[in-house]
Amino acid sequence: MEIDHSALDNIQAAQNPDGGWPYRQGGSWTEPTVYALLAHQAGRAAPPRIAETKIWLGASQQPDGGFKPRRSVDQSTWVTSLVALLPPETIGAESHARALAWLLRQSGMETSPFLRLGNFIRDGKLAGPPALSGWPWFPGTAAWVTPTCLAILALKQDYRRRPTNGLRERIANAQAFLLSRRCADGGWNHGSARSLGYNSDSYPETTGQALVALAGADPSRLPESFRAAQGFLGQQRSSAGAAWLRLGLLAHQQLPAAAPLSSMPCRTLPDSALTLMAAAAERGYNVFLDT
Amino acid sequence: MRRRDFLLGSAAALGLSGCGSRPAAPRVRPCVDITRAAAYSQDIYGAMRRILAQHRLNVRGRRVVLKPNLVEFEPESSINTNPLVVHAAVEAFRELGASVVIAEGPGHRRGTLDLADAAGYFQIIPGFEDIFTDLNLDEVSRVNLQRPVSRLSSLYLPHTVLGSDLLVSMPKMKTHHWAGATLSMKNLFGIVPGGVYGWPKNVLHWAGIHQSIADLHSLFPHHFAIVDGIVGMDGNGPIQGRPKAAGVIVSGRDPVAVDATCCRIMQIDPARIEYLTLAGGLEGIEAKNIEQIGENIDSVATRFDLIMELRELRKV
After folding, report:
1. What is the Cα–Cα distance from A110 to A192, expressed in whole angstroms?
2. Interface residue ranges in chain B relative to chain A, Cβ cutoff 8 Å
């Protein structure tokens, strides 16, 4: 799969005057802005008007160190993981460290001691502490697959820069969380593998994300997941899904040589960026995993 | 558009008479129409025109937002609102002089346009992409809840919805393994932006599903409802259930009354659906307090199977 440099041109053309990027059109959001930067990183190209982008991103950081999804939202959310995936110099080392510190303070609400105390008062018995901990989309809610994957990837980048036991353990714990949320078919959906006794189906996007986040994990635990991801490759449902699948399978050297290319259009900026990032990964550079 | 403007606009659009004369106040019996529609055919276009005529909506020059229910990539299933029903509504509202937008923010899947494509929306609705807004990724403003019954005190909501003169909820008639039934009120979960809250919009679950539905209703009490009950879903809805033909389109300007009527058609006791009693009170969902037009409930009532956990909702 070749890198489509015209896709990079299209991404550049979509930049807003404020330096950020929209999902399709309109105001800038943090997620597409980070994806635009990662696409440039994957394509080994300099982002346009990076000074404005840095200012825009800097203004999106909350006093607590987290990042908000767009200017009109006064709340740090899951997009902090995406920003933390960027090289520290993009937003400055101090801002980057504060983002990571915010991230490390977050976990799914199901692990909250206050919640456990409330359940104790209600049920009269104390459940054991939850052993596994992922990340929520929005503070004060439960952990889910996508934000956990992105947090793992951000922490892995940081671990490569400054390895600590605490970081390694948090990553390992979150990877175990992902494995605990795997669907019966071997893939992942948003994070609900089973509900009211019924198995739920997995999705291509989240299956690919989980495989990227599980890069380096024991492959003997993942054959069903590889099969699920490879099975999804033939479905033409979304370009983002196809890109995540390729990124995920490539992270484990499991992408079949004859894997069909996506024929779905890129409908949002993250779609275009992910497609470009998957192409770069096939040429040996995975921006989520490589420095 | 500011929130206050939105409220005034809605009131203006909806303050005109519906079926029968309807003064703005005091409260009169809400009117719910049940129209038979045996299949997804061209007949739906005429039926939709008649439905809107029945309710006498004055939408000339108004901005109407149609909010279908898009959930999963299963075009052959009965998960999503059928695109033919939505297209019929687009045409019917346009004939009344409205400018029409279709908008949705799915709760689990991120590729909203991909989802709409798989559900047949691109194929059935000419120029679909030009009139569609992904509510998960729309511009947002925070709206305070005045008297919340959930744990929420405010919500970020999309400008496309806040700026509309008339929000039309167009759900599929389905059972729901947590809420009991998902109809026009539960469908408003789709206006809460995933770009802020994520996929799923778990903040609504933590705040209480029934309570959050009631709170969203309090923000849009006069949205119009058109329920696609031609083929609904029973069993383990809203995703893994079975197609269930009910052969009806249910509509009205009072979502509580519309949803209560749908429950009766599904042979679910509306008094046992917590969000309905929270939003309308037991009095608001009593059959005698709802003006029924079109088909009567008994003639179209269809037993929707319920999973074991929901059996107590069965209307007796």
Report:
1. 14
2. 73, 108-111, 113-114, 118, 134, 137-142, 156, 177, 195-200, 202-203, 205-206, 236, 239-240, 307, 309
Q: Say whether the peptide bond before residue B26 is cis (omega within 30 degrees of 0).
A: yes
Helical H runs in chain B?
A: 3-14, 43-55, 83-95, 112-118, 121-124, 159-162, 194-197, 202-206, 209-219, 255-265, 274-284, 297-300
Across the interface, whether the CB atoms of A75 and B196 are under 8 A apart is answered yes
Residue type, A71: R
pLDDT for residue B6 is more than 50? no
**Integer Cα distance of A283 and A290 in angstroms:** 12
Interface mutation target, options B70, B139, B202, chain A, most CBs of A under 10 Å: B202
What residues make up the domain containing A159?
A: 106-180
A25, part of any domain: no
Give me the mean pLDDT over the B230-239 stretch.
Answer: 95
> Rounded to an integer, what distance in angstroms lies between the CA atom of residue A14 and that of residue B288?
56
Tell me, what amino acid is at A114?
F
A93-105: pLDDT as tens digits:
999 999 999 999 9
Residue of chain A minimizing CA distance to B152: A140
- pLDDT at position B9, please? 36
> A66-99: string of b/e by CB count within 10 Å (b at 16+)?
bbbbbbebebbbbbbbbbbbbebebbeeebbebb
Q: How far apart are CA A241 and CA A204, in angstroms?
A: 5
3-state secondary structure of B183: coil
Share of chain A above pLDDT 70, in %: 93
* Cβ–Cβ gap B134/A24 under 8 Å: yes
Taking alpha carbons only, the member of B302, B177, B186 closest to residue B235 is: B177
Pairing of strands B242-252, B31-36: antiparallel
Q: Do B198 and A78 touch (CB under 8 A)?
A: yes
Tell whether A154 is covered by a domain: yes
In a domain, A126, yes or no: yes
CB contact under 8 Å between B206 and A146, yes or no, is no
The answer to whether residue A122 is domain-embedded is yes
pLDDT digits (tens, 9 = 90+) for B260-310: 999 999 999 999 999 999 999 999 999 999 999 999 999 999 999 999 999
What digits encode the pLDDT tens for the residues A125-177?
A: 666 556 789 999 999 999 999 999 999 999 999 999 999 999 999 999 999 99
Least confident range of A13-17, A46-50, A270-274, B77-81? B77-81
Max intra-chain CA distance, chain A: 62
Tell me the C-alpha distance between B136 and A119, whole Å: 33
| Collapsed DSSP state (helix, strand, coil) of residue B200 | coil
Q: What's the pTM?
A: 0.93
CA distance A73 to A64: 14
Total count of domains within chain A = 1
Residues B198, A77: C-beta atoms closer than 8 Å: yes
The shortest C-alpha distance from B200 to chain A (Å) reads: 7
Residue B82: phi and psi, rounded to 5, are -65, 135
Q: Which residue has the higher pLDDT, A196 or B81?
A: B81
